Amino acid sequence: MTSVLRWTARIHKWLALLVGIQIVLWVAGGAVMSLLDIDNVHGDQNVAPVPVIDLELASAISPAEAAGLAGLSGVVKRVELMPWLGRAVYQVEDYFGTRHLIDAHSGERLTPISEATAIALAEQFHLGDLSASSVELLEASTTEYRGADLPAWRVNFDDGDGTSLYYAVDTGMLTSRRNDEWRLFDFFWMLHIMGYQDRDDFNTIWLQAFALFSLVTVFAGLLLLFIKMRRSLLAALKRAETTG
């Protein structure tokens, strides 16, 4: 029993030392993420109301005619009529999953979008009268923008929240919105799931290993407690028999 107690104590001590810092990060991360307002994390406080426009359906051309005028051919998987920058457009998705925007009245192809168009889209989406402070073109994923829609325009605003809006060049669609609270949340999320690369994988080998080590540490501690309580109980019984 002494040998079991000694080895259990060693296992508990070294595993506790190994996983202790990560356990603190798990608890701290959970606390921070629970305290942040999820609507602010999503940037809902900076979203402008969707403008109401007349799509003028009576004068719109057919999706097939619009696709032909835009120079698209082949099998079309899906067509959606939608408002976009104050005009009616068709979003056409082809057989390969590529999406295109076409003016529903003229057949003008509107994608890929330019820097000026990305700025106009962002300023329309962002609440208030602020102009974009800076724009940059992303051609590769970053820790902040991990979307598959690349290249993408990042449009930044000096609104006190560090808002950045991302628009895919090829689709003209808003793909991500980021702000300082999201960045703080994402940092602690990274520590929480131990996803130090893409921050999206909840099944990292690090998380699995440390979760297993934590369980072993807890069970080793419980075993130590049981052994020590048993020894204390036996010692108490022995003292009682001696005094009796």
Topology:
Blueprint: H1 2-35, H2 38-42, H3 63-69, E1 76-84, E2 87-94, E3 99-103, H4 115-125, E4 134-138, E5 152-156, E6 164-168, E7 174-178, H5 180-193, H6 205-243
Antiparallel strand pairs: 1-2, 2-3, 4-5, 5-6, 6-7
What does this structure look like?
- A 4-stranded antiparallel sheet has the order 4-5-6-7. A 3-stranded antiparallel sheet has the order 1-2-3, with helices on one face.
- It contains 6 helices and 7 strands.
- It is an alpha+beta fold.
- Helix 1 runs antiparallel to helix 5 (180-193) and helix 1 crosses helix 6 (205-243).
- It has helices spanning 2-35, 38-42, 63-69, 115-125, 180-193, 205-243; strands spanning 76-84, 87-94, 99-103, 134-138, 152-156, 164-168, 174-178.
- Helix content is 45%, strand content 17%.
- The mean pLDDT is 85.
- The radius of gyration is 29 Å and the shape is elongated.
Oligomer: single chain
Structural class of the secondary structure composition? Answer: alpha+beta
> Number of DSSP helices?
6
Helix content: 40-55%
Biggest sheet statistics: 4 strands, antiparallel
Radius of gyration: 29 Å
Strand content: 15-25%
pLDDT averaged over residues: 85
Globally, the shape reads: elongated
Beta strand count? 7
| Contiguous runs where pLDDT drops below 50 for at least 5 residues | none
Strand order of the largest sheet: 4-5-6-7
How far apart the termini lie comes to 27 Å
Helix and strand sequence: HHHEEEHEEEEHH
Main attributes?
single chain, 244 residues, alpha+beta, four-stranded antiparallel sheet, three-stranded antiparallel sheet, 6 helices
